[in-house]
Amino acid sequence: MKTLRLGVQVLLLFLALLGAWPQAQAQALSEVEQEREMIRELQQAQDEIRLMQYRLEGNQVSIRPERSYEEDQKLVRTQELSGRVVQSLERRSRLLKARLQELGEDSGDEAEQLIVHNERMQLRRADAALRADLRVARLVQVEAQQARQLLREATVRYEKAKRWRRNASLVLLESLPELAQAWPADRSKLSDFAQQWRGTWSNSSWQQSSASLWMAAAVLLVMLALFRVMPLWVSRYLPAGRLRRSSLIIANLFLWFIATWVVVDQLVELVFQRPDLSPTQFELLAYLKVGAWAAAVALACIKSMVVQPRASWRLIPVSTQTQHRLRYFAPAFFLLVYADITSSFFRGSIGLSDAFQSMADGVSSLLYLILYGYGLWVLRDELFNRTDVAGQGASRTGRSWARLAFKGGVLVYILVLGLFIGGWQGLSDDLMSHFITMPLILGLLAYVCMVWLQDIADSLLTYLRNRSHDPEAAPIRVQSQFIVVFFAIARMTVLLLAIWMVSGDWLTEPKQMLESGLDVSREALRLGAVQWRLDLWLIALGVMLVGGVLIHFLRTWLRQNYMPNTTLEPGLQNAIVGMVGYVAYFVLLVICLSMLGVPIESVTWIFTALTVGLGFGLRGIVQNIASGLMLMVERPVKVGDWVEVEGSEGNVRQIRLRATYVERFDRTMVMVPNSQMMGRQVRNLTYTPTSLGAIESRLLFPLDVDADAVMQILREAVQSEPEILTEPAPILSCDGIFGDGVAFSTRCFISTMRVQRRVRSNLMLDILRRLRQQGISLHPAQRWVQEAMDKDRADDPDL
């Protein structure tokens, strides 16, 4: 029975195998046919890809976004097909290699060796054909990726050309017919994309996302608490001064950014992040996340710098009324920046029409114009309708710079408004987004960081001076100079980083816009070594303007921050600052000329020829400049000295290369050429700060005067004047007989020549009062005494 049962089971198993064999064979044949069909489709797609590459590489063609989107979708499907083929072929290749490894090497049995050898050869031929198909599939993957890159470049070229092309004006309602014609196709694409999201949301739940409402709520609560305690911490742990304000602004900026970004990012992930998203959906999610980051930075900058509840906390000093008017500007700016960045997804990712994109650009430009127009209107009242407080020189200077920047902003606003009305919606939107909004945000960030670094430097300098008993000591000066230079380098690094972020590869849109706008001027008209190209001249002009502003700030920093921490005289400080400015302007001019294609050797010869020509034609100016250099090196006259030159007397205020400016005591300014300062007699009454001043007076009396009484009166008058020094002692003498009179003289010493006239006046009035009390009168011929004093002063080198 057991044997019979075993035989029945073997028979049933054999019959089952016989029934399943055709089905398995058919399935194997079906898989092979599917692979062959996919390989044929792949070869056909490869031919299309190579034809597309030939068209795109051979000519600098541009492709509309709609067509680019369709071609890109084909390439994406080709990549997916090649991926499936590679996966299937790799699986078959592993099976073949396993079978070959199982067969091993040839054995000694001839009959078995022939059968295995034939099978091995068949497997090897199949493996070679399989590897060839696998190389083709992988090559198609690479070529499809290259073709997608070429498509993107062609689309970018189309966008560049379209940016500078006038479209139908949105304001004049010229775009309505074109928009109505393209709307059915656009609505279909938007509906398909919305259907993808509906399917994604219906197949998943918001609980499957990584976002957390509890986390967003916790961040908000923590940030609200920090907003309340941060002013207390800053006031407790930082010294009084501007460092408190800038540190509080930095802290508020960081808190606003973290709170806004975390909350918006969590909400985006909660609503949009789902499993099994398509590449297009992932791209939209990436746009939403990047938009949240950038919009959070914009909101944090405005809220922390301008819209502060207390006036002392605002880095930009605006009135409370202006602050109330701008309280809704920050959230509106946040929403607009977020919407603008997110709308970039719909311009090329789902292939909408040019009419729809033009309408989107127009709406974005219109919203920007409304928002910026409101901001300019509010700032106009702040800058031009408020009266400046008397005595606030720094505030008045800052307000003048702000007014200049406001006028520039108004000009740019009028330009963008004209482009928008005229029909250049794309160009106006790009200008608003990439040339105004992004530089504004990065500029505000750089300004906050630079002010904070400057406040740290000032606080450290104040701490050093307060801690030291002798602020003028050499170690304190060295430490002060190190602090000034270190923080100046840090501030310059922040500024250059902001400039690089605006104009570098991190933000390529401004660079691409300039290149596309200047393509019409690529043909160079040469005049000698100079290339007359509009783009080069505009770039050189921009470099000249930016360089001029940087040189101005460099000279201001040297004059106000670095030079006061040195032991140099004020005149030499101004001379060094002037020389640095001239050298910097010369280097800037050479750089701009080299950008225009002028060789450095030619620039050297040009300046050599100009120097020779100026030496002959402008000898007086060259002589004054040479004399100015000698004055700065030898320093016979310094800023602040009291000098007499060419009948003018006053204090030296400035020593420049061409002339020296002397402020007379009647508050008028005399400009003395430096050649006269070096070539003629100049009397410096305060050559050394420690030199004493002298007062000499001579009085003529009748011959019958009581000489002892006169000497006693002079002695008492000199002793009663408190500003006359007792050491060296005053000199009183009887100088002899002049005609029918006798002369008495006094020579007294004072601490400085600055008080000579006042002390001499007080002394003479006291002497005359004492003489009148004693009934002693002067000789009527006092002019002889004056002539004698002038002669003695000319003969005596000490006077």
UniProtKB/TrEMBL annotation:
Keyword Cell membrane: yes
Mechanosensitive ion channel MscS domain: residues covered: 621-686
Domain Mechanosensitive ion channel MscS C-terminal: 702-777
GO CC terms: plasma membrane
Family annotation (Gene3D superfamilies): 1.10.287.1260, 2.30.30.60, 3.30.70.100
Database matches in InterPro entries: LSM_dom_sf (IPR010920), MS_channel_C (IPR049278), MscS-like_channel (IPR052702), MscS_beta-dom_sf (IPR023408), MscS_channel_2nd (IPR006685), MscS_channel_C_sf (IPR011066), MscS_channel_TM-2 (IPR011014)
The protein's name in its UniProt record: Mechanosensitive ion channel
Compartment(s) where it occurs, according to its Swiss-Prot or TrEMBL record: Cell membrane
SUPFAM superfamilies tied to this protein: Mechanosensitive channel protein MscS (YggB), C-terminal domain, Mechanosensitive channel protein MscS (YggB), transmembrane region, Sm-like ribonucleoproteins
Record key words, sorted: Cell membrane, Coiled coil, Membrane, Signal, Transmembrane, Transmembrane helix
PANTHER family: MINICONDUCTANCE MECHANOSENSITIVE CHANNEL MSCM, POTASSIUM CHANNEL RELATED
Family membership: Belongs to the MscS (TC 1.A.23) family.
Membrane spanning residue stretches: 213-234, 246-264, 284-307, 328-346, 366-383, 404-424, 436-461, 482-503, 536-554, 575-596, 602-622
Membrane topology per record: Multi-pass membrane protein
Signal peptide: 1-26
Molecular-function annotations in GO: mechanosensitive monoatomic ion channel activity
Protein source organism: Alcaligenes phenolicus
Keyword Signal: yes
Coiled-coil intervals: 25-55
Matches recorded under Pfam families: MS_channel_2nd, MS_channel_3rd
